[in-house]
């Protein structure tokens, strides 16, 4: 009990001594700085995150393909007007002069793409001819490709070949998909000789041919063994690891 009394009596004395020492020697440092410096972190927002890829449609980001691929009101109005007058050539030509010629570049391309999607290929050809007359137009293989494929799928091979010749005059080369659709179109149309002409052009192309056009020809030329043997020989030379299947004669049929 005596010890407790002594300790209680010394507490006020010790407290006063500590307060005097603090007043005489103020704190000069602190565990928490007043203005802490935040380290500079370099922004790498332009670098893609590891494991993720940035995809696009594979087309060059040239002047014809900038902007959003949305159809504006003007383009929709033109599409509806062309479809309304498509059975009257005079009205179509008048509509082109009054409405289509004043469209902006991206609206013209949007009209062309939508007409191709709706298989309005005759109207799409007219719009393409308008595009070719614009000051900003430069030969573009993708514009030709989409329209040629649309014509071939609609069995309009004469119009497709006219565009094909124009494309070659502008020193543009079709890709494997374009060759495939043209060859398929001629075989579907019952014109194996024309399909072989396109095949010869494909062999001479600066780009190496792909396997799919050969497969289509090997199937479509079953009723024409001489032509098929030539294609088969080239196929085995270009793709030695692949095998060309020869079905029995009793199941030969036209493609």
From TrEMBL:
Repeat (PPR) residue spans along the chain: 140-174, 175-209
Source species, domain of life: Eukaryota
Family annotation (Pfam families): PPR_2 (PF13041)
Keywords, ordered alphabetically: Repeat
Coiled-coil residue windows: none
Residue ranges crossing the lipid bilayer per the database entry: none
PANTHER family per UniProt: PROTEIN THYLAKOID ASSEMBLY 8-LIKE, CHLOROPLASTIC
Classification via NCBIfam families: PPR (TIGR00756)
Protein name listed in UniProt: Pentatricopeptide repeat-containing protein At3g46870
Species for this entry: Herrania umbratica
Source organism phylogeny: Eukaryota, Viridiplantae, Streptophyta, Embryophyta, Tracheophyta
Gene (name only): LOC110412605
């Amino acid at each position: 009990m005596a010890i407790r009394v002594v300790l209680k009596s010394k507490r006020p004395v010790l407290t006063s001594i500590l307060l005097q020492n603090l007043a005489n020697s103020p704190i000069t440092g602190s565990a928490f700085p007043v203005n802490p410096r935040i380290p500079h972190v370099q922004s790498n927002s332009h670098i893609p995150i590891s494991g993720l890829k940035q995809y696009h449609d594979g087309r060059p980001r040239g002047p014809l393909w900038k902007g959003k691929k949305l159809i504006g009101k003007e383009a929709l109005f033109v599409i509806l007007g062309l479809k309304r007058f498509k059975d009257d050539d005079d009205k179509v030509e008048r509509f082109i002069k009054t409405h289509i010629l004043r469209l902006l570049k991206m609206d013209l391309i949007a009209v062309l793409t939508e007409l191709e999607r709706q298989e309005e290929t005759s109207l799409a050809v007219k719009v393409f001819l308008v595009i070719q007359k614009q000051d900003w137009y430069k030969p573009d293989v993708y514009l030709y490709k989409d329209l040629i494929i649309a014509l071939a799928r609609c069995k309009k091979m004469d119009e497709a070949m006219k565009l094909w010749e124009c494309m070659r005059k502008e020193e543009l080369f079709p890709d494997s998909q374009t060759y495939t659709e043209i060859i398929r179109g001629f075989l579907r149309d019952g014109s194996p000789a024309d399909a072989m002409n396109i095949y010869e052009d494909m062999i001479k192309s600066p780009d190496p041919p792909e396997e799919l056009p050969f497969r289509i020809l090997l199937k479509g030329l079953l009723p024409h063994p001489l032509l098929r043997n030539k294609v088969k020989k080239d196929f085995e030379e270009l793709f030695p690891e692949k095998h060309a299947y020869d079905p029995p004669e009793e199941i030969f049929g036209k493609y």
